[in-house]
Amino acid sequence: MTSAKVDKGQDGRPAVATADAAASGEGYQRALGARQIQMIAIGGAIGTGLFLGAGKAIAKAGPSLILAYAIAGLVIFFIMRALGELLMYRPVSGSFSEYAREFVGPFAGFVTGWTYWLFWVVTGITEVTAAAQYMTYWFDIAQWVSALIFTVILYGVNLISVKLFGELEFWFSMVKVTAIVGMILICAGILTLGFSDAGDTASVTHLWSDGGFFPHGISGTLMTLQIVMFAFLAVELVGVTAGESKDPKTVLPKAINTVPWRIAVFYVGALIMILSVVPWTEFEPGISPFVAAFQKMGLGVGAAIVNFVVLTAALSSCNSGMYSTGRMLRDLALNGQGPKFFTKLTKSGTPLVGTTFSAALMLVGVWINYQWPGDAFTYVVSFATISGMWAWIMILVCQIRYRFLADRGALPQSTFRAPGAPYTSIFALAFIGMVIVMMAVDKDARISLYCAPLWALILGVSYLVLKARNPENKAFAKR
Predict the structure, then answer these.
(1) pLDDT, tens only, 60-104
(2) How many CB atoms lie within 10 A of CB 5?
(3) For a surface tag, which of 4, 49, 112, 378 has the fewest beta carbons within 10 Å of its beta carbon?
(4) Could you tell me the pTM of the whole model?
């Protein structure tokens, strides 16, 4: 293990350390290489929110959904650069709750860790629900059966090793990237050469001729922001991988800087092509616009292939969920804010108990699919969005606080400073606030705001109980 001079953070702990030292302190194996981290970052931006959720969003906003994705994508870039600045200051696994503890307080770290854990449990349910829906394209099988099978398989994969997780995510992401690029090229060919059933009618004029670019007005576009932001949830997963990356200070900045072109190609570019080839009025909520587009083109085999791809995307996100939940629970336990048994690792460096506990709760998704197979996706998406955005809020608040201290010499400067901060971080916070307001207005999304106070109450009571039982624990002391 190499040695290096270590700067002290606000809490007296090492702020900057070698990768080997950090790995040793957390007990994880640094087995994720550059290509795996890059693909995890790319794959995090391509999931069910795009492949399935975009169908409902297109029906609500029409072509203006393209603008919604572009603006939200810019906000996501601000969030990721804020996270990157924090990661280069101190790259640790469970980064969100660690930074919240240091820059806001112990209760903020407690809330952030448990809320991000809940986000991935709920997201896992969301993704396994979507995967079960995709299976009905080929087979007449009950959704809950597919959901159960997928949950068990992915749980087994996550127990083996982080290297296998990284490899699986690499290939999951490769399938998604290849498929979207291929679809964009096919749509471009239809627009220029006119082949397929859609060749005679395909035209970029569909973006403004069928009711205008804003067919339901600006309000219709604003009401899709919840779905749009849900599509981007998981891009911050690279922060969780920091503790298991081979070379975080080199790999993570490169992965974060790919965010703009990822969004430009996979969201904006893909939607421009799809909505140019097939009028937005022909898409239906609950049906993947990618699958529907190939069916409208008369390319049945292509539709089946895309359905396989979107199935892969859902399983990829669920796989990521199982990975991150185990790490977040272990981080909470190591800081005295969770049961000690969550600290246990297997010989391969996998948090066995935390992953098992989270996978067991994801089985709730099986029950949801059994009870409400038609509405399951809508129910869980709204709650996943509000819980996931809490992590973004904490990232931005912590970055603003860190920049304030670093600029005054109280902390070492990050080697990857966020451009335009803190103003870009403040703008991102305001945007997230607007999304929450839109969720309150939307009757379908409002359920998540009803659940949020209940979750806050549970966390508040739990925190007070833990603090009363462990008054000497430094995890509950102000720093």
Answers:
(1) 899 999 999 999 999 999 999 999 999 899 877 666 888 998 999
(2) 6
(3) 4
(4) 0.85
